[in-house]
Amino acid sequence: MSQSTVNSSGTRSVWSDPIRxxxxxxxxxxxxxxxxxxxxxxxxxxxxxxxxxGGWTDNPVAVTRTNPYLYVSYRTSSNGI
Length: 81
Hints:
By secondary structure, this protein is mainly β. Helix content is about 0%, strand content about 20%. The chain has strands spanning about 30-40, 70-75. The chain has a two-stranded antiparallel sheet with strand order 1-2. The mean pLDDT is about 75.
């Protein structure tokens, strides 16, 4: 995964080097939660909704010719909150 940040004016930073993601199954705790959005647009969404709604999902899917962009948003949590 690589990441980029979009500020409030819609300007996007450069993409980061790849980031390794790993995790373990189990109860919620301290960590990071990710949601994904598959799109046909090269323009990144300005913000992600709270939770997996509005086309966002917590299950990443493969890009296609029709939808070649997969955006990710994350939030940090403490004790599952």
